[in-house]
Write a structure and sequence with these properties.
Elements: H1 2-16, E1 51-54, E2 57-60, E3 69-76, E4 98-100, E5 108-114, E6 120-127, E7 135-139, H2 141-147, E8 154-161, E9 188-195, H3 198-210, E10 216-223, E11 226-236, H4 239-251, E12 258-261
Parallel strand pairs: 3-7, 4-6
Antiparallel strand pairs: 1-2, 3-8, 4-7, 5-6, 5-8, 9-11, 9-12, 10-11
Length: 263
């Protein structure tokens, strides 16, 4: 009997797709709205129970999102669930502007503002989650990139529900014209230091890892004068995101930092 209950609980978790969320790969209306008015939506056939239980906790789905505002931590995810079904029955596309929320009706459009750097993005909520303590919304890779939280992984945000017919202003994402290549082809890095001795680079890398800077790594540059071991955080694909990472690093006591371009 106990085994049967465990199997049932597992099926519920899979159905809810706690960490999977997204939109059809070819659905234009599901890609989030950055320009133009918010489209009218109706509740999907799946993903909208009056309540559900995950890991022993019951969540109550809102009947509507009118006036909904919430602050808390946002997270994101990338390729693992790309192409899989969401709680709404749609297919997750990591390059679409979508998100997962525990209690908002599905689908609904919301504006997510990164309170740490002021950037905003409009997303279409069409899945359930995140079920990790302290997090209120899971963002697609594309949405997280626009908010500048790819490297950090999380950020404090404000969620505001958008009304049908509302015409939110489009956010302008600044980039730097580094070369004739596309921005995607020219990643940025935050260089923390360059050393002739590898042990010095390893010590700095250890300090960064202890400060929870998990995107830090060592790269070796071979020259006529010998090898240099550079400690860098990245890659990053947006100058605003890079500046936000620099501010975070300086707040942690890492002062000698600068933006560099991958050779």
């Amino acid at each position: 009997m106990a085994i049967g209950r465990l199997v049932l609980a597992g099926c519920i978790l899979i159905w809810l797709s706690a960490c999977t969320f997204g939109v059809p790969l070819d659905s234009r209306s599901a890609r989030g709205v950055e320009v133009g008015s918010i489209p009218k939506t109706s509740k999907s056939k799946s993903g909208n129970p009056s309540s559900y239980v995950v890991m022993g906790k019951r969540y109550y789905v809102l009947d509507n999102a009118a006036g909904f505002v919430q602050r808390g931590m946002a997270s994101w995810y990338g390729t693992k669930f790309h192409g899989r079904k969401t709680a709404s029955g749609e297919i997750y596309n990591m390059h679409a502007l979508t998100a997962a929320h525990k209690t908002l009706p599905i689908p609904v459009y919301v504006r997510v503002k990164n309170l740490e750097n002021g950037r905003s993005v409009n997303v279409r909520v069409n899945d359930r989650g995140p079920f990790v303590g302290g997090r209120i919304i899971d963002l697609s890779f594309a949405a997280a990139k626009k908010l500048g939280i790819i490297v950090a992984g999380t950020a404090k945000v404000e969620i505001s529900a958008l009304r049908a017919g509302q015409n939110p202003a489009r956010e302008v994402i600044r980039t730097i014209p580094l070369t004739d290549k596309t921005e995607q082809d020219v990643p940025l890095f935050i260089q923390m230091g360059s050393f002739g001795s590898k042990i010095n680079a390893i010590n700095l890398l250890r300090d960064l890892r202890d400060a929870n800077e998990l995107a830090a790594a060592i790269s070796e540059l071979r020259t006529d004068r010998g090898s240099f071991f550079r400690v860098r955080v990245g890659p990053l694909y947006d100058i605003d995101e890079a500046n936000a990472v620099i501010r975070r690093l300086k707040n942690k006591g890492f002062v000698s930092v600068r933006i560099v371009v991958q050779e």
